Amino acid sequence: MLKELMILKNLGVDGSLINYYVNYFSEEERAQLFNGGAFELQFKYNLTNGKHLVVFEDKAKLVATEKMVDNVISRSDAQNIKIISYYDDLYPSNLRFIKNSPLFLHVKGNLNLLKVNHSIACVGTRNPSNNTLQLIGDIIKGLVKEGMVIVSGLAKGIDAISHKECLDNNGRTIAVLAHGLDTIYPKENRTLSERIIEHDGVLVSEYPIGTNIQRSNFVARNRIVSGLSQGLIVFEADEKSGTMHTARYAYSQGKHIFCPYVAKDNQDLSTGIKKLLESGSAIPITNAKDVLNVLFTKVGIESSLIKELQRISYHRNISMEKLINSILEKYIEGEKNNE
């Protein structure tokens, strides 16, 4: 069915018809759609978007589209790129619940890595400060030690550094690209992309092989970076940078956003980080444990209480870990006094 779905997508058919094709049409009706029976199916299933069915009357376009799809599948196979659709069991469940889920994923490497439930996205500026570089190394080392998978976009700067730090600590990482997997951008990250695959990682894109680099695709790519993850760390970013698109996607997807903790009055704080922290959109962190405590807490703490702890942590210049430990120590001390 993959080939037929790719043809439908490239014909410009809308999602509702594709959904009918997969979930309601019989095998005979699927064949009928491509063989002159589109309008009969429209009346049978009361399909309201009939304008999308006109394309099935254009035999030349159908033949050309099928030929193009065959070419994409053939070239992908030759480069060990697997194509999975939204309706495939291998499709990552995390992406099923985001807005505008990609219909197809083109994957090279460890496909199973896309379905893990312990991944964290790491993003930020192309030109990080020395302090940020130190934080990236320390935090990612701690996350990888606990089995976290690192997700990023293979871009210059913090993206590439995050992938490298993960690999240097024997971790696994997912790189989400904004073009066909036959291209690596920037070119200097080609060796890094090969290393990711060699170390049980994976490259993934919603764009088929042969798709050229387009600026708009990088913004769209960011929803997948956050969508594949349980949370997002923004290490350093300007307020109007592309990184903030990823933060907005993460926020709309209900994902936790983390930023390295810096004192509120620190003038070195990047404008994007400052905005995320002061608005309460992001959780301040100083180490990997701060992230893990929020993502994988084993006690049933109410969301409102977590937010209050985060607020106290930020305004009192103390990490979440130290704050929670302080509360526990006072509780234990009080219990002893009551004995």
Describe the structure.
With 339 residues, the protein is an alpha/beta fold. It has three domains: 2-78, no CATH class; 109-288, 3-Layer(aba) Sandwich (Rossmann fold); 297-339. Helix content is 48%, strand content 12%. It contains 15 helices and nine strands. The chain has helices spanning 2-10, 15-23, 27-33, 38-45, 59-78, 93-96, 130-145, 158-168, 190-198, 215-227, 243-252, 271-278, 288-295, 303-315, 320-338, and strands at 82-85, 104-109, 119-123, 149-152, 173-176, 202-205, 231-234, 256-260, 283-285. Strands 1-2-6-5-4-3-7-8-9 form a nine-stranded mixed sheet, with helices on both faces.
Question: Proportion of β residues?
Answer: 5-15%
Helical residue percent?
40-55%
State the end-to-end distance: 69 Å
Uncertain segments are 298-303
Largest sheet: 9 strands, mixed
Number of helices: 15
CATH topology grouping of the largest domain: Rossmann fold
